[in-house]
Amino acid sequence: MADVAPAGTEFIPPAEVEDVELYHAKTWVTKYVFSQDAKVIAIQYSATAIAIGMVAMVLSWLMRLQLGFPESFSIIDAGDYYQFITMHGMIMVIYLLTALFLGGFGNYLIPLMVGARDMVFPYVNMLSYWVYLLAVLILVASWFVPGGPTGAGWTLYPPQAILPGTPGSEAGVVLMLISLALFIVGFTMGGLNYVTTVLQARTRGMTLMRLPLSVWGIFVATILALLAFPALFVAAVMMTLDRLLETSFFMPTIISMGEMLEYDGGSPLLFQHLFWFFGHPEVYIVALPAFGIVSDLLSVHARRHIFGYRMMVWAIVIIGGLSFVVWAHHMYVSGMNPWFGFFFATTTLIIAVPTALKVYNWAFTLWKANIQLTIPMLFALGFIVTFVNGGITGLFLGNVVVDVPLSDTMFVVAHFHMVMGVAPLMVIFGAIYHWYPLMTGRMLDEAMGKFHFWVTFVGAYAIFLPIHYLGFLGVPRRYFEMGETSFIPESVQTLNAFVTVIVLIVGFAQFVFFYNVARSFFKGKDAGRNPWKATTLEWQTLESPPGHGNFGAELPVVYRWAYEYGAPGVEDDFVPQNIPPDEVKMAPGGATQT
Amino acid sequence: MSFLGELADKPWLTQGSLDGIPDAVESDLPTPQFGLRVFLGVVTVLFALFAVVYSERMLFSDWRTLPEPWLLWLNTGILILSSMAIQRAVNSARLGRMDGVRTGLVAAGILTLAFLAGQFWVWLQLVGLGYYAATNVANAFFYLLTALHGVHLSGGLVALGRTALKMQRGVEVGKLRMSVELCATYWHFLLVIWLALFVLLLNT
């Protein structure tokens, strides 16, 4: 921290664009239903994402019941099971995690944190949510069509995804593809807003390098999504045509059930490339916002500036760039040229460098910090541990020679659940405990929060550590039941039953969380203003919770970065971004000017 | 300062100070233009991916080339004219001449509709000759790419229609200028996309 002479506001550069004209809703419907206010849209996005996410959670219970106690549930047949795994994966990755991080946290945090009154294109932003909702409804509708939802696995590989014999190959897969295409259209509308708002609507003094890392994570993830989702769109459109018009983009010459089909000469491998050109960046579309948000949670709750802010920003950008050149590591067993595998293994392992850098910086942020073991901090710590865990198994799988024997085993399932399931969820929970007071003006109950954290955290390990081991034994993923398999010992069944019991317990703990969210809304402790003593602008609004237009008559002016915690000589231990240097309250006897 | 230049900032050294923070408004583009450019970036990626898949799929042995109706050349000419017409509307708007804006927008709208009708006619010709989408993947690509371009152009027509409505309501030229300029950017962009697609489709 340098001793810098206080400067007046007159030198601060003007905002990059003038104050936008706000749309003022007049009726209840335009205020809370067809709302153009990013904060309301954020809550609509979050509520929808969590609702459909609960469906996916129930599907995971059903899967686990089958795996843990095979032949005990006559209601679950093999076809149902494939539908469960497909819909569970698709919903969790796209309709829950992507929508919640970008549509939910993106909408809530970006305008508030950059000091804008709203997103730059509020009308398009509103449309974004409604198109997303339509995509979710079409997805749900696939349960109610003949044949049910698709059971092709979340990767939807052709030719099996659209051939008879795969559950949902009649209508389910078509609805799935249409729903995905709509999701992408809706997301693009939102994404345009997030990118343009960050680049064009920052308030006076908010330079790029004064942005909180949450905004950086969401911003770069949005750029990734805008570039990667078109690949899924292309794949979805062409597969829909293959299914409906019998074109042969992906469908090879094929005999199905003894009958020569109309298809001719298509390339299923082309689909895999398109899918993973989207699919791998998708991992970082989920991870980067989590990286950003967890950095802010750690800094606020450890009362210490984030260690290596510049490195953190650069690492986010570099990881984002690298995520586009690693996709074929999902395809080591597709029969591609070994040189290709060598190339993609190399790029994959290089990603570990900026990622490890972030982990070290989180650890250094905590080093000798004034750590407050609040619920958001617990979840942030849970994230670091889980992410490192999942990241290390990623190094295993990134190597071709290790990946080939582990391909399509439970080890892969355990790896990606740790790294992009449990880890981002830890951040989402931490973020909800952190920002709930801002959204509602009330604190979430701490005892219930602790219960929720410990059961979820310990439970996640009790579930996924054994699954790694099952993978090493050679237990394949996506199998309805093992049957007579000589190389799989009987103890596997005991372990599977154990995992299922834990899954149900962890599932129960989530209802404690939902109860906490609902109860605290009415009976929670009053949060007051800025309960966590955070420096970022969303806590410095005129009223709390922030009202329409976010800030008062004047937009805030930003004088410093977002990490002025533990500042020496200052009365409180933090200085908000918008306090002019000459108004910082110094402690009696404190000498240093920040 | 450039985007990359700004990334070299050390924010912890500039608290309350303005050293190293630029004092001019940075963005050269108004926000709607900026947003449109971001969108066009996404559309470019979309068409680029189609082009890659097309080039890749072409290498398979089942690829059968389809005829190139002369009408496509005429349609291309019409689309170029529509781009010129909309540019005329922009130039007039900059000079404050409402009549020029009106002529430009109406001409651009009619020419675009003519282009879309021409494309549809090409489809009918090909279907008449028995080039169905399911017969060969080259045909399927032709219908898919022309349709996708047509859908984007139709979306543009909605924006053009809204601009024309604003003009009808008597909005002054200065306020109309932004909408006209946005339409023009989009039209020129879709012309470039079409030219690229045309080269791709001719190159079977």
CATH architectural arrangement of chain A: Up-down Bundle
For the secondary structure, the number of strands of chain A is: 2
Q: If you average the pLDDT of chain B, what whole number results?
A: 90
What is CATH's topology name of chain A?
Cytochrome C Oxidase, Chain A
Shape of chain B: flat
Alpha-beta classification of chain A: mainly alpha
Question: Using DSSP, what is the number of strands of chain B?
Answer: 0
Please tell me how large the radius of gyration of chain B is.
22 Å
Beta content of chain A comes to: under 5%
What's the story with the biggest beta sheet of chain B? Answer: none
Largest interface: A-B, 66 and 50 residues
- Write down the domain tally of chain B: 1
Largest sheet of chain A: 2 strands, antiparallel
What's the CATH H-level superfamily name of chain A? Cytochrome c oxidase-like, subunit I domain
Number of helices of chain B: 6
Number of domains of chain A: 1
The first-level CATH class of chain B is given as Mainly Alpha
- How does the overall form of chain A come out from the CA principal axes? globular
- pLDDT < 50 stretches of chain A: 1-11
Architecture blueprint of SSEs:
The complex is a heterodimer of chains A (594) and B (204).
Chain A: H1 28-33, H2 38-68, H3 78-114, H4 122-141, H5 172-200, H6 213-244, E1 255-256, E2 259-260, H7 268-301, H8 309-322, H9 338-366, H10 375-398, H11 400-406, H12 410-440, H13 446-473, H14 491-523
Antiparallel strand pairs in A: 1-2
Helix pairs in contact in A: 2-3, 2-4, 2-14, 3-5, 3-6, 3-7, 3-12, 4-5, 5-6, 6-7, 6-8, 7-9, 7-10, 7-12, 8-9, 9-10, 10-12, 10-13, 12-13, 13-14
Chain B: H1 3-7, H2 31-58, H3 71-95, H4 98-128, H5 137-168, H6 173-202
Helix pairs in contact in B: 2-5, 2-6, 3-4, 3-6, 4-5, 5-6
